[in-house]
Amino acid sequence: MAETATWSWEARDVGGRLVRGTLAAASASEVAARLRSEGRVVLGIERAIGGNADATTEPARGPSGRRVRGTVVAGIFRRLSVMVESGVPLVEALEIEAADTGRDGPGAELAAIRQEVEGGSPFSEALARHPRLFPSVAIGLVRAAEEVGDMAGMLERLSDWMQREDRLRRQVRTALAYPMLLASVGTIVTLLIVTLVMPRFEAIYAQKQTALPPLTEGVLAVGRFLTQGWPVWVPGLVAAVVGGFAFVRTGAGRSLVERGRFEFPIIRSITRPADLARATRTLAVLLASGVPILDAIDICRAISPWRRWARFWDGIEMSVRDGHGLSEKFQSDGLVPSSARAMVSAGERAGRLPDVLHRVADAADDDLEIAVKRVGVMLEPAAILILGSIIAVVAIALLLPVFKMSAVVGG
Fold first, then answer.
1. Both 391 and 302 in a single domain?
2. Per DSSP, which regions of 89-143 are E strands?
3. Within a domain: residue 54?
4. Residue 227 and residue 93 share a domain
5. 74, 251, 334, 390: which sits with the fewest CB atoms below 10 Å from its CB?
6. Side by side, which strands form the sheet with 5-12?
């Protein structure tokens, strides 16, 4: 019978927080299996000296809880890669980068990481103590680099991955930025007309003591409600916004948001290739870097907050554990097109899975770029048409009484 020992473990929970604890088990693999059964992403397991088994876990905290842009972190990893490849020791490279980054960047975090590495902690473990700064993919890749001894190459690969992730986010934002700007400007202009211009016209109409057209009466009533009824609609608007955010945090609200994200045609045309590119590229980088496939699947599952993708990765993990490979379940809920599954199947048979996954991600990037342009072409004229129609209705409502009075005078 195997001897039971106490193991220190480090993982991410379902919410993405870094947690640590100890477990009594016969082997590290048993600890990993128990953690995965609880939905955790395993980052590291070591035999503990002393300690209490099943200790309560606590989220790790860095020197600060702030977030840093992905491009900044990607630049840090690239510069570290160049220095390490040039023969600069990692501790010295971290010290240089912390000094160059300064207070405006994550200098304090880098200084803390340098101290931990200098004290004997693995680089991956030091990074894992700053989960808001370094994603789980970065920690997994650095841990793989420590095992294979290719820290410089791995840091460069990680920098490329983070830059592509930032590019994906910017592409999605670009698709919605201009229509949202048009909507915001149009709404502001309309409110200014209704609240500032229309009351002056209303005073002029009151002096003429003429009956106003129904359209004009309706628009003027809206203006009066906005200017005089603010004690009613302002609290109502605030309550609606707060209630909306609270509803989104509930299970029903999250399900509704997720359904709209994955099923609304315009949104789906952007999110589907973006999600596919992120998933396949992350998996490709992890597998090419020597990360075990089950650990790579755990990391990929953690980077997406959506339940449909969690179910997708659950199916992939089950297929791999049953010995069927990735392609067996590489199509679920309409998340992955048939062409991608066929490519993955061919890559598995040829033993070139990471390369094929990279090609799938590149193809998804091209699809995303096309989708962004198509959505922009659709939304921009639609926004102009809607806002123009609203402003036209307001203008017609204001001018109808003028035409009517002119006809009376002319008659």
1. yes
2. none
3. no
4. no
5. 251
6. 18-25, 5-12, 41-47
Same domain, 159 and 182: no
List, for residues 217-232, the tens digit of each pLDDT value: 888 888 788 878 888 8
For 36, half-sphere exposure in the C-beta direction (CA atoms, 13 angstrom radius) is: 22
Report the half-sphere exposure of 49 (CA within 13 A, side-chain side). 0
Place of tokens 């959505």: 375
Q: Name, in order, each residue with C-beta under 8 angstroms of 52's C-beta and a sequence gap of 6 or more.
A: 6, 22
205, 208, 244, 405 from 411: Cα distances, Å: 19, 16, 55, 10
* Spans of the chain below 50 pLDDT: 1, 49-65, 409-411
Which of residues 143, 163, 183 is at a domain's end?
163
What pLDDT is recorded for position 265?
85
**Is the CB of residue 124 less than 8 Å from the CB of residue 146?**
yes
Domain-embedded: residue 59 = no
**Side-chain half-sphere of 213: how many Cα atoms within 13 Å?**
15
Q: How many helices (H) and strands (E) does the chain have?
A: 16, 3
Question: Which among 299, 239, 274 is positioned nearest to 313, based on CA atoms?
Answer: 299
CA distance 269 to 374: 9
Same domain, 102 and 178: no
Choose one of 118, 134, 163: the last residue of a domain. 163
Residues 138 and 176 in one domain: no
The number of distinct structural domains making up the chain is 3
- b/e sequence 269-278, b meaning 16+ C-beta within 10 Å: bbbbbbbbbb
Please tell me whether residues 331 and 406 are part of one structural domain: yes
**Domain co-membership, 231 together with 176:** yes
pLDDT digits (tens, 9 = 90+) for 124-182: 888 888 877 887 778 877 877 777 677 888 888 888 888 887 887 787 777 767 777 87
